[in-house]
């Protein structure tokens, strides 16, 4: 049977003579591979998953490559549940945990060059096209898991199993859905296990936050050039993106670089606007580390280096709300409590400004000016643990080891006639990353200033 290869319509034909010439004459490049960072922690996580769903076969794919355009793929980013349980970051791999609790990792190993043309012809897996992959022995050493060729996966899935669905359609097709929400429960449990971070995860997150702080410093230093560029927002995006690639895997999510009234758009990622020194810049960005844990930090900066009185008015109210929210973080507190605390401060402030009556405030109408939640869990995903059941997350209580963001904001739309003209078009968000400790919370992003006067002094110092 002819070897199945991922080739393109414009690839040159291979003659029999060339195929024979390519077959041998290569040095042995097998490597002694050390275990991946975090491999021991991944083994403990698999054990915890088995304890939650004992006696079951569990199937967790890494995901597949996605086309960006024609035969050009997006850079691969593995599914977070797979990374959590293995540390792996390759496409088309599948973790199978047997009812006994033993794990096997099915993957596409580096083949023998004497037996396969893949290494120089296959655009998806070929070593000459995309770089070297592990052979089976190297993979077992790296992952500390028994490994097998992906081609043997169908035979291994010869009975009932729970599958993390929607990640790899070819894997979904191998196991018929049970129809009783068993697969949905697997997805929920995988999210819930990630609610509390182990010490290795917290260290990874701290590294990502520290790199993010350096990225924000890079941006402030680059503001003179960005202000002079017709696409200043995109200039800032590029500066931060450089830091994320130098110190990590990539940005953890699409950077929000919003100047002026763009800051009133919650997820402004077009980033195609000009910077105006009379306006502010809302920068919401995070470095994703090499092991895929991401930071998520926002600062709103006066592009002139100093807040105007009205900018300071809005900024100070958001700062007051965030400070109050952080103060209530502790083990045993309801998850929603910090958001409710921030919103009380925002609502009271809007009343003091004359924008809300007492009855409007009591009815929750402050949300016209601040529609989104004030924070979320953080980890391998920027909005981590998203499939956890409400009773364990949104309606649950905080626990030591959880990492979350606190990010209240005010978004005063430029066309909102309930606002005085001087407030229209101002958007402010302040976002920090925190880890819940035994008696409160530690500010992981403390390297970046929060108060308005600290922001101004920090910007002045970086400007030299």
TrEMBL record:
It is an enzyme of class 3 (hydrolase). One of its GO terms (biological process) is proteolysis. This is Xaa-Pro aminopeptidase. InterPro entries: Aminopep_P_N, Creatin/AminoP/Spt16_N, Creatinase/aminopeptidase-like, Pept_M24, X-Pro_dipept-like. It comes from Microbispora hainanensis. The lineage of its organism: Bacteria, Bacillati, Actinomycetota, Actinomycetes, Streptosporangiales. CDD domains: Prolidase. Its EC number is 3.4.11.9. SUPFAM superfamilies: Creatinase/aminopeptidase, Creatinase/prolidase N-terminal domain. Residues 36-172 form the Aminopeptidase P N-terminal domain. Keywords: Aminopeptidase, Hydrolase, Manganese, Metal-binding, Protease. It catalyses: Release of any N-terminal amino acid, including proline, that is linked to proline, even from a dipeptide or tripeptide. Transmembrane segments: none annotated. One of its GO terms (molecular function) is metalloaminopeptidase activity. One of its GO terms (cellular component) is cytosol. Belongs to the peptidase M24B family. Its cofactor is Mn(2+).
